[in-house]
Amino acid sequence: MTPADISLANCLADAAGAVIRPLFRADFAHEAKADASPVTEADRGAEAAIRAILDVECPNDSIVGEEFGTKDGTSGRCWVLDPIDGTISFMAGRPIFGTLIALLQDGFPVLGVIDQCISGERWLGVTGRETLLNGKPAKTRKCRELSDVVLASSGPQYFDNHSAEHFMALAAKTNQRTVWGGDCYNYALLASGHVDLVVETGLKLHDFAALAPIVEGAGGIMCDWNGDPLHAASEGHVIALGDPARLDDVLEALACNH
Fold first, then answer.
1. Could you tell me if 32 and 117 lie in one domain?
2. Reading across the β-sheet that carries 151-153, which strands appear in turn?
């Protein structure tokens, strides 16, 4: 990972924010996609701005974006983009969405950005380096017992009956200290030591690729529900944990290793 890659990632986040900010709590066009999820002109405009830069700066890199699909490359590197993770929050005027930018090398995330352009918060994670929040180190916090954990997830509606049963078994071990909503912002809060555990299912690559370098560079761990590292082919059952010492407890509570 070169300083130029990090500088480029920051440039991409700046470009997305410049599109998003004028449309926040303003009039903007929106529609439903084929899967009934909403998309706005801010989502599409932000991703288009990022892609325009990548086409010039990294023409041989692949791109995977939520709004405009896949562009094949030849370098073994892939930029993964979610211009607004938390579109519903954006539409509701809640500044807990984020722009997600990831760089994958041979299928594994090596750089991630969570940018909240309204609050001016940017988390940057790079493999082998400490995570930074606006240039200063971000750290997860230790947690002695699952009963002390603050657990977060985007919403109960994203779990099917089977996964919901597992999730609620885990939530019971945390004394029901569960926060709903937040999308990528939950992972940012975890990296900064305000949330201890995020558990979700059904995520796509653009939802989680940027998160792993950020969580891990802050001292935490990200994996799937079996405890395996996340990569381009992961199914999207995701655990983010601030204190890796509690991972066996989490897996046991989820009952996914039995």
1. yes
2. 178-180, 151-153, 197-200, 238-241, 221-224
> Among 233, 241, 243, 246, which residue's Cα sits nearest to residue 211?
241
Q: Quote the crossing angle between the two packed helices 247-254 and 161-173, to the nearest 10°.
A: 130
Question: Residue 216 maps to which CATH number?
Answer: 3.40.190.80
Are 212 and 109 a contacting pair, CB within 8 Å?
yes
Condensed to tens digits (0 to 9), the pLDDT of residues 64-79 reads: 999 999 999 999 999 9
Q: Are residues 19 and 132 in the same domain?
A: yes
Q: How many domains is the chain built from?
A: 2
Kindly report the average pLDDT of the chain as a whole number: 94
- Residue 256 banded pLDDT, cuts 50, 70, 90: low
Of 113, 87, 86, nearest to 101 by C-alpha is 113
Q: Where are the alpha helices (DSSP H) in 21-150?
A: 41-57, 87-91
Give, as one character, the DSSP assignment of residue 149.
P
Range of the domain at 66: 3-137
Domain boundary among 137, 163, 183: 137
Sort 68 into a burial class: Cβ within 10 Å, 0-12 / 13-18 / 19+: middle
Please name the residues in contact with 143: beta carbons below 8 A apart, sequence gap of 6 or more: 149, 196, 242, 243, 246
Among 137, 166, 191, the domain boundary falls at 137
Is residue 258 scored above 50 in pLDDT? no
Residue 126's pLDDT band (cuts 50, 70, 90) = very high
Mean pLDDT of 56-60: 97
